[in-house]
Amino acid sequence: MGGILSRENIIRWAALLVLLALIALFTALNPAFLSQRNLARIAIAAAPAMMVALGVTFVIVMGSIDLSMEGAVSLAAVLFCLLFVKLGGALLPWGWLAVPVIVLFGAFYGMLTGLVHVRLKIPSFMASLAMGFVGTGAAVMITGGEIVRIGDSTFRMLLTWRILGYPLMVYVAIACIFVALFIQKHTVLGRNFYAIGGGEELAHASGVNVRAVRIAGFALAGAFYAIGAIFQVAKLGQAEAATGANFMFVSITSVVVGGVALWGGVGGVWNAVVGVLIVNVIANGMVVIGLPNFLQDGVLGVLVILAVVLATDRRAVAFVK
Amino acid sequence: MNLQQIRQYMPWIALVVLVALVGIANPGFLRPANLLGLAGDIVPLFIMALGLTFAIYIGGIDLSVQSMANMITVVASVYLASLGGWVAVLCVGAGFALGMLSGFVTTRLFVPSFISTLAVGGICFSIAQWLSGNRALNMDAEQRNAVFGWMIGRTGIIPNELFIAGALLAICLFIERRTTLGRAFKAVGAGELAARASGINVARYKILAFAISGALAAIAGLMFSVKLSGGAPTIANGFLLPAIVAVLVGGTPLTGGVGGVLNTMIGTLIVAVIRASMLYFGIEATQQQMLFGLVLIVAIATTIDRSKLRTVK
């Protein structure tokens, strides 16, 4: 190792450099890209995805994976809308209660995923995929395929009230990033995620309760998915069983592109933030320079393969399933 | 007979018990015409699950099958007019090639298969949106009947789909049981490191397994588009969950190495009977996905071979 081009340095800074290069590229192709209006558009698009990506980051750092976000977001969004309406349909006096309740529900749902994974000893990608199907299924069942709307203008201020040109949602999202950063850096739980991701057996031998930490990681992820769901509802003013559609692919791509290694222990919240911005800048930039936006998923697919390939230390991997 | 031996027959027992239960509750269910119709309707799903079996049999997973089928419905609808019957070759070729790409990325670039196939699925989705212009497409009815009419008619009371399914099952069964390829798949699924140590070119066989999975997903997509006489980038959504359930319920565990395509046939029939029984017992279609999700968890938990997983990640 050592030197400015060491593996660690590349992993730490490559994603940020890619982000800056992309911004420069799109601005050169169309200066309107860097206009404040467009930046706000990117920020609004990125806010819900950012929450989902932050959640899954903790799970990936542990060396597991969570594919349940589509179901979790759909279910949380639908339940949030229904509860909000039930509590009077306005943020004041009682509608706000729906926010903490749904975040707790998200944590509970994530905990269930964690329990299925840890207690039944099912690999996390399959346990979470199955729980995601259950979530979407539950959302379909509850709504009967209908759309649930929220019209409260106070709640929609998350989107409509702009400070310095950016909606309130963006500031809340930034606050959530700092919360995630705090959990990662300054809590025992955060450090235990890295301990498990770095080597589960070693962590176990050093007295970390691996099972409990894993379940806690999935619960934490679930809470962030719920926040993402609430943002998505604020953005669209409605929820349905398809609200969470496409969150899985985009959020996993973001996190991996940002430099969080799939096998755990490497990367963290900042990587996820940069990754989400990269993905959203690409999505927005393709529209701004006039490329059809359906190329997006293909570009992201290629990108995620590239990112995993670049981040993989070939010598350390014996075989891959 | 010990527990291990009984376990092997569990899927068969489950199928018979389910059929009997539904049959008692609703005798009309057991009419041959009804059973045959039921089996005919499930064929596209069965073909997809058949391919998926190979990916799971070697210890991987293919999450791209649904996007693949979606893409193929669009490809078939777009190129039927210009290529005629050759469109089938294009579809299967595209499925095989994209499956190979998944396998290549998994084995040569060391990307876990659930991520590589997810990424290839994203590529498929893009192609589908691009080709279709994000609209639902229709096939020319006359041309469809002329070229692919034989796929969807009936011979006597037997739906033609069942002959195709039977032929594909026979081919897959032959590959699995009677060729060195099938033996190699089993060796890789049973223990990859041991297989490598005995001189098997593991990467090549894994790539082939993913390619077969892609090709069969493409055939499933082609048949689906012929049935619906059209295609769209999201038309086959909802196939992935029952396809995985069919493979796992049939008795091919996520860890690979045991089970096989015959098990998948049983698994698919179980899925078909569960679906039909929901209809008879008045359970709404909206609850189906949730039920299958729970069935999936139970199926994995009961079939997975934990001795193969050193740490469960």
From TrEMBL, chain A:
GO terms for molecular function: transmembrane transporter activity. The chain crosses the membrane at residues 12-33, 39-61, 73-92, 98-118, 125-143, 163-183, 215-234, 246-266, 273-292, 298-317. Its main location: membrane. InterPro entries: ABC_transp_permease (IPR001851). It comes from the Bacteria. Pfam families: BPD_transp_2. It is found in: Cell membrane. Keywords: Cell inner membrane, Cell membrane, Membrane, Transmembrane, Transmembrane helix, Transport. It is a multi-pass membrane protein. GO terms for cellular component: plasma membrane. Part of the ABC transporter complex LsrABCD involved in autoinducer 2 (AI-2) import. Probably responsible for the translocation of the substrate across the membrane. PANTHER family: ABC TRANSPORTER PERMEASE PROTEIN YPHD-RELATED-RELATED, AUTOINDUCER 2 IMPORT SYSTEM PERMEASE PROTEIN LSRD. The complex is composed of two ATP-binding proteins (LsrA), two transmembrane proteins (LsrC and LsrD) and a solute-binding protein (LsrB). This is Autoinducer 2 import system permease protein LsrD. It comes from Paenirhodobacter populi.
TrEMBL record, chain B:
It is found in: Cell membrane. InterPro entries: ABC_transp_permease. Keywords: Cell inner membrane, Cell membrane, Membrane, Sugar transport, Transmembrane, Transmembrane helix, Transport. GO terms for molecular function: transmembrane transporter activity. Pfam families: BPD_transp_2. It is a multi-pass membrane protein. The chain crosses the membrane at residues 12-30, 42-60, 72-97, 109-131, 151-175, 205-224, 230-249, 261-283, 289-305. It comes from the Bacteria. GO terms for cellular component: plasma membrane. Part of the binding-protein-dependent transport system for D-xylose. Probably responsible for the translocation of the substrate across the membrane. This is Xylose transport system permease protein XylH. It comes from Paenirhodobacter populi.
